[in-house]
Amino acid sequence: MLKIENLHVSVDGKKILKGINLEVKKGEIHAIMGPNGSGKSTLSSVISGHEDYEITKGDIYFKDENIEDLSADERAHKGIFMSFQYPIEIPGVSVTNFIKTAINSNLKARGLDEMPANKMLSKIREKANLLEIDSKFLSRSLNEGFSGGEKKRNEIFQMAMLEPSLSILDETDSGLDIDALRIVANGVNKLRTDDNATVIITHYQRLLDYIVPDYVHVLQDGKIAKSGDKNLALELEEKGYDWI
Amino acid sequence: MAYTEEELKKELEQQEYQYGFTTDIDAETFPVGLNKEIVKKISAKKNEPSWMTEWRLSAFEAWEKMEEPEWPNVKYKKPDFQKISYYSAPKTDPKYESLDEVDPELLKTFDKLGISLEEQKKLAGVAVDIVMDSVSVATTFKDTLAEKGIIFCSISEAIQNHPELVKKYLGTVIPKKDNYYAALNSAVFSDGSFCYIPKGVKCPMELSTYFRINQAGTGQFERTLVIADKGSYVSYLEGCTAPSRDENQLHAAVVELVALDDAEIKYSTVQNWYPGNKQGKGGVYNFVTKRGLCHTNSKISWTQVETGSAVTWKYPSCILKGDNSIGEFYSIAVTNNYQQADTGTKMIHLGKNTKSTIISKGISAGKSQNSYRGLVRIGNNAENARNFSQCDSLLMGNSCGAHTFPYIEAKNKTAQIEHEATTSKIGEDQIFYCNQRGIDTEKAIALIVNGFSKEVLNKLPMEFAVEAQKLLEISLEGSVG
Questions:
Q1: Which of B26, B96, B194, B371: disulfide with B403, CB 3.0–4.6 Å?
Q2: Mean pLDDT across the stretch B179-192?
Q3: Measured between alpha carbons, how far is A243 from B13 in angstroms, rounded to an integer?
Q4: B450 inside 8 A of chain A by CB
């Protein structure tokens, strides 16, 4: 589904990623771990198409298509979703209105009709239940005054609504207390199918107790220094990043 | 590379004004110029009684001695009043029994605007009194209104058929000599709307008027008078779009509202006059005087969405004369390219326990300048007067300006006055967040702007809110760079 070949990325002329190779297949969960400043968030931003990041070398393929020239919204239409580390506030726009606009934009881009209101409503209800979200929450302005946990839960709610092929969870565990972590992880697990894939970007292995990855990669200084299975995460937790 | 905002901006700048077309209807137009004879001729053309002619002439005399105001925060080439034609009426006889008799060209125009009469008639019980180049050409729902004793007609008809009401109220809220443009309007107003709601009557439908400047070089001077008698209620909608023009067009309207004891008037406007092209050439000058007078326990609420005009100068105001009266002002003003807007409100508290609320949302993009100017005055006798003002500005790009000029004068120490103001910018991170969810940049801006304006949009009647949201989108296309 996602294939990254020898990816080099710079921001403002500063080299951040220095030759990343990664392949994520359907049905897989990959965890990318690494110390602060290793390039984890850069990787998620560049996959989702943030324009501040310049690809100086290498390629990103999504569903066998080179997506370098696609804008962020076009990538979203193809099924790429990113759960933001720091979700953005949009005052006056309710969670419901935002997700409705997003879903209909995606449908339109794929040449489909807008989702009828009743279908939208029942889907919102279903996914809100999955993430134990109160209906009052859905009328609030997007991310405005949300607690850290509410923000992250709302990101996963949007993911559940949009049903992407590839979900990148950028530090989704940060700012979550243990109950919220369990709810979010439970949501992600339930949304897992044989056809979609998930990339979890995290500093700690805590989240990986709840969402068990098929592969773990350690990012250091813009390169994948080591790959392995879930045991690698446990080993890292024990020995620290210096061990690599 | 990806389709950048820069490219989007360029593409959208090249789009012409969506409603920029003119209708090919025979019109009778007066020669250019303004003098006593022209004023008399306008009055004669409309078969007005002599008291009306005299009223116009005294306004003209006052106007001749007045100076065009310099204080607004706008720059423009002053209109040459001798180069404007002051009367233009479609030649086709304007009195119709049914829509079938209306000039098909005119109906087509309304179709293009998406406000066809057929549609209006079917939809939601909106009675429409359409003003196109000064003469009312169609009025609907008259019968329903007449049953309740409601008078809704053109001001010309009102002068003929209800002279006692016009005589009693015309110029009582905005005197002839109130200001330069009000005086000009009083002298030469061509037509406009008149509305009277009798005692205790709740108007069963939203009353609406669509204005449209059509004849090249014809300044338009609308005059609107709305009277809500004791204990009555009316919601009045005014909306306008104008065709594309190269020379500047002057629009100097006067709107007077009178809310008698226990009455309520809700007056909503969506304004989309031609704003000029992207270089700032052409566009309508909109110099409007709007004011309402509140008697005891009455309420006047102004809601406006201002997206058009090259230069706007407009302060819908409330005089809270009666005790316990309430004034409200909800405004969204959008400026893009080279547009300039100096708009706001005046809340004059005279009675006891009077309350006013001001919510102003200014959105500036391109190289435009957007000013809020508001006055809250608490008079000597206005015990326990309260005001809450909130002025929020949203900026797009680095070349536009947002200004706030709040004036507060409190002469009674029991007054409570609150003023809040914020300024924010649409962030690239907000746009990226939307993009990542599959929402394109243009739609993202519309979403963010609608969110910013929500408190005001919520005040508009349903059918108008949808149109207003569309207008915001059109007005701000390509404005983030």
A1: B371
A2: 91
A3: 57
A4: yes
- Contact check, Cβ <8 Å, B436/A88: no
B357-393: pLDDT as tens digits:
999 999 998 889 999 999 999 999 999 999 999 999 9
Sheet holding B299-306, edge to edge: B135-139, B127-132, B207-212, B233-241, B264-272, B299-306, B326-335, B355-364, B386-395, B416-425
Provide ipTM, 2 decimals: 0.96
Q: Find the closest chain A residue to B452 by CA distance.
A: A92
Chain A positions in Cβ-Cβ contact with residue B469 (cut-off 8 Å): none
Of A84, A101, A141, the CB nearest to B433: A84
Between B75 and B477, residue with greater pLDDT? B75
The architecture CATH gives domain A2-239: 3-Layer(aba) Sandwich (3.40)
**How many whole angstroms separate alpha carbon B131 and alpha carbon B109?**
13
pLDDT of amino acid B122? 34
The answer to whether the CB atoms of A105 and B438 lie below 8 A apart is yes
The confidence band for B127, taking pLDDT boundaries of 50, 70 and 90, is very low
Quickly list DSSP for B230-247.
TT-EEEEEEEEE----SS
Interchain CB contact of B439 with A (< 8 Å): yes
Which of chain B's residues have a Cβ under 8 Å away from the Cβ of A158?
437
Closest CA to B94 of B144, B51, B153: B153
Q: What is the pTM of this model?
A: 0.80
Chain B residues whose CB is inside 8 A of the A48 CB are 436
On whether any CB of chain A is under 8 Å from the CB of B54, the answer is no
What are B32-62's pLDDT values in tens digits? 788 998 999 999 988 999 999 999 999 999 9
B427 touches chain A (CB under 8 A): yes
Question: Is the distance from CB of B397 to CB of B366 less than 8 angstroms?
Answer: yes
B420: burial class by Cβ within 10 Å (0-12, 13-18, 19+)? exposed
Query: Could A74 and B2 be called an inter-chain contact, meaning their C-beta atoms sit closer than 8 Å?
Result: yes
Query: By the CB < 8 Å criterion, does B240 face chain A?
Result: no
What pLDDT score does A65 carry?
Answer: 96
Q: How far is Cα B58 from Cα B51, in angstroms, rounded to an integer?
A: 11
Binary contact (B433, A48; C-beta < 8 A):
no
Rounded to whole angstroms, the Cα distance separating A152 from A161 reads 14
pLDDT of B325 strictly over 80: yes
Report CB contact under 8 Å: A109, B437. Answer: no
| Phi, psi values for residue A115, rounded to 5° | -75, 130
Say which residues have a Cβ less than 8 Å from residue B303's Cβ, sequence separation at least 6: B266, B267, B268, B269, B330, B331, B456, B459, B460
Q: Give chain A's radius of gyration (CA, Å).
A: 18
**Cβ-defined contact of A71 to B435 (cutoff 8 Å):** yes
Cα angle for residues B394, B398, B399 (degrees, 5° grid): 100
CA of B400, closest CA in chain A: separation in Å? Answer: 22
Residues A233-240 have a mean pLDDT of 86
Give, as one character, the DSSP assignment of residue B460.
Answer: S
